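W.,

You were right to be curious about this one. When I first looked at the sequence I had no strong expectations either way, so I just let the prediction run and decided to look at it fresh. Below is the sequence, 639 residues in total, followed by the output.
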Amino acid sequence: MQIQDLPYADPGVPDARSGPRFLWWLGRNQLGGQAKALAWGLLHFASVSALPFCVGIAIQAVIDRSGRHLALAGLLLLLACVGNALGDTFLHRAAVTNWITGAARVQQLLARKAALLGSALTRRVAAGEVVAVSTGDVEKIGWFVEAVSRFTAAAVTIVLVCVALVIYQPALGLVVAVGLPVLALAVLPLLPRATRRADFQREKAGRATELASDTVAGLRVLRGIGGEELFLDRYRRASQEVRHAAVRSARMWSLISAIQVLLPGLLMITVVWYGVHLARQGRITVGELVTVYSSVMVLTYPLRHFEEIAMAYSFSRPSAQRAARVLSLERTVQVGGSRDVGLLSGDLYDPVTGLLAPEGLFTAVVCGDPDAAGRLAERLGGHAGEAVAPDDAVSELREPDAREAGVGPAAEGTASQDAAADQEDGASVLLGGVPLDAVPIGSARAAVLVQDKDPVLLSGTLRELLDVPASGAVSAEAALTAAQCDDVLAALVEGSLDAADPMDARITERGRSLSGGQRQRLALARSLITDPEVLVLDEPTSAVDSHTEARIAAGLKGLRAGRTTVVFTSSPLLLDQAERVVLVHRGEVAAVGAHRALVRSDPRYRAVVTRETESETAPRGVDDETALRGVLEEIEETA
C-alpha cells in the first residue's frame, strides 16, 4: 500500500479485543510494507556495522605495509558507504509510508464506526475522548507500526555483529556479546513507571482538550453571562496540570535516555581496557582491537532503537487500547442485514409508543419531555440501537467524565440506568411494514432522515454545505426559500470579502459566526434538499422568532406536500399547519387529532402547548372558552 493509493477501499475488520491484539492485527495487514522496510533496514544497519571492519582491515594493512589489503579495505568501505546511503534513504521512505498508511487505516476504521453508531457514539464515549483517539492516539499507533520494522532490522544486525565479533575475535567478542543484551534490557524495569506517567499526561491533555472545545463552542454564551474569565481560569489550571504531567513524564524518559548513553560508554571502556590488556600480551593485533572498539561504538546507533521501540510500545499500547474500545462498540440491535427491500416507503410506525405517521402527511408530535422527544426522533430514524461494549470497557470510557463532573457511584448508577433504558426500547420502528433494523443501515438512513435539535454545520462554502446526496426534486433555491434563509444569505455575503454570490460565501466551523436561528434555518434547508422519503425534524424552529416561524411552517408544509414529514415541536404555529397531531405522554400515544381540536378537548395537550400550570388546567368556564377562541384567532392571524 502506497500513500498515493489512500484511502483504503476497505480498511478491514479489526481485532478489537485488546490493544496488543489490535496492534498485531495492524501489523499483519501491513506485512508487505513491513518486509520492505525490514529489507532496507538490514541493508542500512549492516552497512553501518561493516564500517569498523573496513577500518580495522585498513589499519592492519598499513601496519603490515600491504597495498593489496589497503585497496580491498577501500573498496569495502566504498560499498559500505553506498549501502548506507541507499538503505537509509529507502528505509526512511518505507517506514514513513508504514506510519501514514497505518494511521490512515485506524482513522478510516474510527470514521466508519462513528458513521455506523451516529449519535450513540458520544453517549458512550465523551466527545473529547473521540477527538483524542482520532488524533493523538492515531499518531502514536502509527509510530509503533513504523518503528517495528526498524527495530527488527536493528535487532537482527546486532545479533549478526555479535556473532561476527565472536568469530573474528573470540576474547573480546564474548565481552561484547554478553554486554549488549544487558544494555538492551537494562531499561525494562523503568518502562512501567514511564508508561503510567505518559498515560496520566495523556489523560490530563484529553480533559484539557475537551474543556477547550466546550469553552470555544460556548464562547458567545459565556461572554453574555460574564463567565468567560471563569472558564479561562479553569482551562489555565487544566493546562498547568498537563504541563506538570508532561514534565514528570519527560524526566522519566530522560532518565531512560541517560542510561542508554551511560551503559554503552561503560561497555566501550571495558572493551578498550580489556583489549589493551590482550594486545600487550600479543593475543590480538592492533587492527583487531580497533575493529572491536569501533563495532561497539557503532552498535550504539542500532541499540538506540531498543529505546525507541520501548517508548513507541509504551505510548501506543494504551492508545491502541482506547481505539480498540471505541471500535468494539456495537449497537444493541442487529443492523446491516442482507435483506433486499428495494425503496422503503409507506407508513412510519413505532410499536413501542404506538406513534403512527401516515405516508404523505405532515405529522406533528408533541412531547412534554424534550429529552424523550429527542430519543423518539432517533428511534424513528433507526438510530435507537445504542453502542454497547463489555461492562469494563464502558466503565473505563465513562470514568473520566464522572471524575471530571465530580461525581462517583451515583453517576455510574445513572449511566447504567440510561443504558438499561436504551436497551428496553426493543422492537424496531416499521416503515411500510418493514423493520428498519432488518435492512442495511445505509438503506434505512437513506429512507429516513433525522435532523436533531442541535444540527452541525461544517466549515466551507454554502455551496459545499448544500452539496449533499439528494433526489434532485428539490433545488437549493427552493429549500432556502422554504427555510426563510434570505437574511442568512445577506449576512453571509456581508461577512465575506470576496463572495458576491451567497453560494460561494464561507461558513466558519460549526457556523459560529451565525446566530442560533440562522444556523437552524441553514440546517433545515440542507435537510429539505435531500428530499428523503421520511423527514424527521426535532424542534426545527426553536431559535427563530414567531413571524419567521410561521413562514417556515407554511414553506415546510408546501415543499413537503405528498411526502412524509414528522416534526417534534410544541409551537402552536407549526402545530396549526400539521395535518395530524399526536400527543405522546409518558412514552405512549395519548391523543391524536387536529391542533385546534386537541387544544379544546385535551388538558394535557393544552398544558404542553400553552405552557399552563396545573391550576390553569382546571375545568374552564364560559369566559375561559372565549379567551381560548381569542388565542386561536391570534394564532391564525399570525400564520
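Here's what jumped out at me. The chain has two domains: 3-327, 362-385+427-610. And, maybe more interesting for your project: The first strand starts at residue 330 and ends at 331.

Coffee later to discuss?

I.
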